[in-house]
């Protein structure tokens, strides 16, 4: 069963090897874990639902107002959410959880919301790390609309390679239903295990193999959105010059314009081959230049990821197997990649011929920048663990450490600058408390123009939840301000939600915000749909 | 100098070989050309400008109200425009032509428009085939804003591969300024010679090598739009999940939201290699399947085009060189491609290794579908003439023929159906007048999901301009209705303008139109900017 107060399945735990613990102790000191609240205690604190008494009959059993359902839908997966769930101090709960089984059910819910002045929050996998699905403390009832019942592949057009899914279909069900027919969507965000296809569209998600398959913007072909004004149908057309693209208005709309109920996506035949390869570079400068060269050359890779020196060191330390790692490091050192070494992982996916040609091209470019190619062994390890990283938060938590990430994207001319600013801000962010922060970064999602920067930071929890939250807020806020002040997007792949909304106006500008607001006001003049998210 | 009443440069003529004339006579009969009006006669008909007397001083010499300038900016390049220009019956002229040199100048013009209730029409290369830049017959003065003075590369960031251009830069100046630094944009619409980078953005243009470089949507990285509410800055960010993408609101906005003044685009280093190859297939079915396979395989091609049997026959007939063509046809016939043969052209662009691998893959796929590979000779011919096809209208006109095209895009499962409907509608569209129409089609701009359909039709001009126009209107209208009723976009690459606006609501739906209208109303509540275009 899904964890009510953390990531993923209760039966799965990612153990941190003892070398990992030693590594962190050395960097930021010994952690002191905080005590977790119990589910029953939290359920006991859930107040009476404020939904009108008539809602049971009006909604024909669509709505669950049980405390546990409301607890389980109150928070996402941001660190602030995590602290709320672990402490049991949720603050606000939705007044009920609806589980529609059709677009018609969603229309019923929308009508109910309009007639009863109720807020609706569309809910996919609840994996938001930016506060998308958290109810606000307002004087209106809040109904969370969990799309989980709409989780089927309803059509597959193999000619046009278009698959139609219910919006609540989570990653594994997307892939397993497609694979049965020999197809894949190829969208693999780290949240894959729990996040849903509708959530990907609503929050403009990007997957680990976006280099081949594209971001969700490229995969989303059309579908259906239920709005307060009726049904918005987005026809599938391969490309069009017929005015602004309405798909692009729905992408990133985060529940503000309506509830996405049906998603049509561009799928691909399962590839002939797929493999992941690891190369180590002597230093950051050369490693980054190799990545830039590969993507600007249009070398046909399916994924690319570059860890900086601290992330490389951390990953090797946390991997366990110290003797094997020592051997590897001796070998790399002989080939010129030692203390400052940076690890690149690249993926090849496609026909045999494509993979062969791209591998030769990639190896040649890497060699030009001093890269030491180590084959597919470490790449296979990466692929094996690609979706389990979120479980690391559990393992670290139990040792008294909090971990979070910040991510952005910027142009190549600004990557090193922004990365440096972010790491510096985080690394020194708790100095006034005398606390060290362990900070490391990788680049991923590469474009000719630039790339995303994904920075992880680990710090010790304080002696109370409140102080721990304030540590996080201070790190998050100061670094987010730096990002948007320095040509970074406030989010490359996590969306805006409520947490990033304060930083959005700097990125979009006054008139950009006006455009977004005018769409929200047109489709939802009374701000019933997920208010506070995206724009306040 | 540019032709005032047709396409391109006055000194360039594309001669139709005598075989071409015979071919058309055989198909649709001998043409009887109509007489052309003279420029001076048209200028004599231009009425007094209705711009307020104060405009000369208020606009500091930005505005030209001379009859010739107003004639030269009154029409685009649709067939209706062509008939108006050739007959001299323009109907409506703009009241003046402004030539801003900066964003500030454009702001001056916008202020002037607001204060004096004047309509503004942004004007790039005037190559619209959908009535984008035609002034409406309204009781307000109309000022056309010709962006031609803003035609410089103002910045080139070679790290991020971002080039900044004035919005009025035409294709050849885009490429020549980039090539001087070793870069290319790679955007080659057929209108390349005259159309501008700002016009490409405003109308969601697509170039012949979009398979490699992407549509303008993928190339447009940001820039600046002057609106009635102030300047909209679009920052360059490689990709973002921070809410709806404002770039996508400007793309296809067709002058309704503001005047695009600065365009930042994603450029590429000049490729190591480029070549174009031609393959003939025995029939349509196999040829289409080969294209579908190539694009769904992600074979790294830079362009792909497939002519149906009638287009193949027509192109070979119009090419001249009957003896060489006869030789070629004999060879093809021996290899199985005879009467129903279809010609595919594909382009390879990139590193030597990429081109080599893609060529092997492409040849293999083509062979599987019975394709006969003929090398690069015909491909080089295509490349040589790729931008001269619009001149063909001149050559046909002088023989008494009118030629026009209709284009759309649809999903693979619908390509043959829609293509058949379009060709049928056009071919029989003038039967009640006893006139034959010569109709042929190619596919281009391929996507995993589908492709664009580009249908050309040639018919004899009637004995008056009026009747000729009514022939065209009847063909255009009935086929456009068919397109949107059968899952095609009203335009894959030409935009909406005024001509396609009536068909847009079927494609976008009521709520899609509402979204577009709400943006127009927000940015231009008094409908001063290019009214009647995109939405009425």
From TrEMBL, chains A, B:
Keywords: FAD, Flavoprotein. It comes from the Bacteria. SUPFAM superfamilies: FAD-binding/transporter-associated domain-like, FAD-linked oxidases, C-terminal domain. InterPro entries: Alkyl-DHAP_Synthase (IPR025650), FAD-bd_oxidored_4_C (IPR004113), FAD-bd_PCMH (IPR016166), FAD-bd_PCMH-like_sf (IPR036318), FAD-bd_PCMH_sub1 (IPR016167), FAD-bd_PCMH_sub2 (IPR016169), FAD-linked_Oxase-like_C (IPR016164), Oxid_FAD_bind_N (IPR006094). The keyword Magnesium does not apply. The keyword Flavoprotein applies. It holds the Pfam family FAD_binding_4. Residues 90-270 form the FAD-binding PCMH-type domain. Belongs to the FAD-binding oxidoreductase/transferase type 4 family. This is FAD-binding oxidoreductase. It comes from Marinobacter albus.
């Amino acid at each position: 069963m899904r964890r009510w107060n953390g990531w993923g399945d209760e039966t799965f735990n990612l153990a941190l090897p003892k070398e990992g613990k030693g590594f962190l102790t050395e960097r930021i000191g010994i952690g002191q874990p905080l005590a977790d609240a119990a589910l029953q205690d939290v359920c006991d604190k859930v107040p009476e639902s404020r939904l009108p008494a008539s809602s049971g009959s009006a909604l024909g059993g669509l709505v669950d107002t049980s405390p546990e359902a409301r607890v389980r839908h109150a928070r996402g997966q941001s660190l602030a959410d995590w602290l709320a769930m672990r402490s049991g101090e949720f603050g606000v709960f939705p007044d009920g959880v609806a589980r529609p089984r059709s677009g018609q059910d969603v229309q019923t819910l929308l009508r109910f919301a309009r007639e009863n002045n109720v807020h609706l929050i569309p809910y996919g996998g609840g994996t938001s790390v930016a506060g998308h699905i958290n109810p606000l403390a307002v004087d209106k009832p809040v109904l969370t609309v969990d799309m989980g019942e709409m989780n089927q592949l309803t059509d597959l057009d193999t000619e046009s390679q278009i698959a139609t899914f219910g919006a609540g279909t989570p990653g594994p069900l997307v892939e397993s239903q497609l694979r049965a027919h020999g197809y894949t969507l190829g969208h693999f965000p780290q949240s894959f295990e729990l996040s849903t296809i509708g959530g990907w569209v609503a929050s403009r998600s990007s997957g680990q193999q976006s280099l081949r398959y594209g971001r969700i913007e490229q995969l989303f072909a059309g579908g259906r959105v239920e709005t307060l004004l009726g049904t918005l149908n987005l026809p599938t057309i391969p490309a069009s010059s017929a005015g602004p693209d309405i798909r692009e208005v729905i992408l990133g709309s985060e529940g503000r314009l309506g509830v996405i109920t049906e998603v049509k996506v561009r799928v691909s035949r399962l590839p002939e081959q797929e493999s992941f390869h690891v190369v180590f570079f002597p230093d950051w400068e050369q490693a980054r230049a190799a990545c830039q060269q590969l993507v600007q050359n249009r070398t046909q890779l399916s994924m690319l990821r570059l860890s900086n020196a601290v992330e490389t060191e951390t990953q090797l330390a946390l991997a366990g197997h110290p003797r094997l790692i020592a051997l590897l490091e001796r070998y790399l050192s002989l080939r010129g990649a030692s203390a400052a070494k940076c690890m690149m992982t690249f993926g090849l996916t496609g026909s045999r011929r494509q993979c062969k040609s791209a591998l030769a091209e990639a190896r040649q470019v890497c060699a030009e920048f001093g890269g030491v190619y180590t084959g597919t062994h470490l790449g296979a390890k990466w692929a094996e663990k690609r979706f389990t990283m979120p479980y690391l938060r559990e393992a670290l938590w139990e040792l008294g450490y909090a971990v979070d990430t910040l991510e952005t994207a910027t142009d190549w001319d600004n990557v090193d600058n922004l990365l440096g600013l972010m790491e510096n801000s985080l690394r020194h962010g708790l100095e006034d408390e005398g606390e060290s922060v362990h900070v490391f970064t990788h680049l991923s999602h590469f474009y000719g123009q630039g790339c995303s920067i994904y920075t992880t930071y680990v710090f010790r929890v304080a002696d109370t939840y409140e102080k721990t939250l304030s540590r996080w807020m201070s790190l998050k806020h100061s670094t987010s301000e730096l990002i948007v002040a320095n040509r970074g997007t406030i989010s490359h792949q996590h969306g805006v939600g409520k947490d990033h909304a304060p930083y959005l106006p700097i990125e979009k500008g006054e008139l950009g915000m006006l455009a977004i607001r005018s769409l929200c006001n047109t489709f939802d003049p009374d701000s019933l749909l997920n208010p506070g998210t995206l724009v306040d």
